[in-house]
Amino acid sequence: MDITGLLTNGIGFVATLFSIVMWMPQARITWRNRNDAVRLAGVSETTQWLSMIGYLLWGVFGMLIGSFWVAAPSVVSFPLSLATIVVVRRARRMSVPAASVSIISMSEPLSETNPTDAVPILTTGSIPVIAAGSDHSTVTVPILSSPATPDTAGAPRHVADERTPTTPVPVLA
Q1: Is Transmembrane helix set as a keyword in this record (predicted)?
Q2: What is the spatial distance between Cα 63 and Cα 70, in angstroms, rounded to a whole number?
């Protein structure tokens, strides 16, 4: 093999190495988060299909012209793209759990010497994160509340029955 052939094969080897290494971080992140539909939401299935088709065509082209270095990246990258599609489709079929976010626990009564007297208190222990089936543009949800009436000295009273919601919450659906 002459110097031109060695140089051509050397460049092909480096190009193949970069083509294979390029997909390794995506494959590692996809595999690590295979059970987390939220983290896999940013992976484009269309891009993976296009990459897979492109690698298939490059592999066939490399075999037709007899160039191992043109076809070699397809041997690794085609299965990685296919595996990514399978993992992303599986994750998208998984249900995303609806949950409530706990803000302040109201299980203990407030004492009269509470240092957070000026802070509005929650009337409930959580805020719904996902609300389904609402046809309204706004829904009044008691998130923050303040005492309805002050005591005789003008200080807020800690009577849970007299707390009122502060504002309606817009529902974006």
Answers
A1: yes
A2: 8
* Residue range 128-147, pLDDT digits in tens: 545 445 444 444 444 554 44
Which domains does the chain possess? Answer: 3-93 (1.20.1280.290), 98-173 (no CATH)
Residue for token digits 């998984």? 94
Q: Mark out the alpha helices in the chain (DSSP H runs).
A: 3-32, 45-65, 68-93
pLDDT averaged over the chain?
70
By the 10 Å C-beta count (0-12 exposed, 13-18 middle, 19+ buried), 173 is classed as exposed
